[in-house]
Amino acid sequence: MRSAEFDREHVLRQAMQAFMVKGYSKTSMQDLTRATGLHPGSIYCAFENKRGLLLAAIAQYQADRMAQFQAYFPEDGKVVDGLAAYLANIVAECQCGADKACLLTKSLNELAEQDEEIRALLCQSLGTCQQGLARQFQRAIDNQEMPANQSSIERAEYFVMGVYGLRTLAQTHPAEATLTRLADKLLKDSCN
């Protein structure tokens, strides 16, 4: 059997969108073929099944998010400015459609208790995010942008909790001003 030829990253990004809109359980194979442009046989050949496609989509999502995250923190820039821009982007994403804002949040809420492999991948992704934040907080402490009264790890843990709290709250469709106010408070509390 010959292998399917397609732009894997594009297909995975399209699958991400489908999973974010409907969730894993409600996303049908027809939804995925429509979103990706692939025939079911090509999806099965490349990813084995819908679950395999979700696992690959989560891995791609994490890679995309890490690249996006790194762009907020140039070496010659202030960490606090990067954190503020990162949070502003999260608020903007949530306002564009809270149900489509974060594949990790959606998947954690739906599948973490049902599938150990998916739970482990999601936990690894969150851990990678937290480690990246801890590095940035440590850089800010070292550059005296913020006091050393908390460790970079404690700051990163608090920040991650706040980000996922914002994403979850956004699913209740609060006013943008509310999300912005909470994001500003998260930034202030994380940096003091």
TrEMBL record:
The keyword Heme does not apply. The keyword DNA-binding applies. SUPFAM superfamilies: Homeodomain-like, Tetracyclin repressor-like, C-terminal domain. One of its GO terms (molecular function) is DNA binding. Residues 28-47 bind DNA. Keywords: DNA-binding, Transcription, Transcription regulation. Residues 5-65 form the HTH tetR-type domain. Transmembrane segments: none annotated. This is TetR/AcrR family transcriptional regulator.
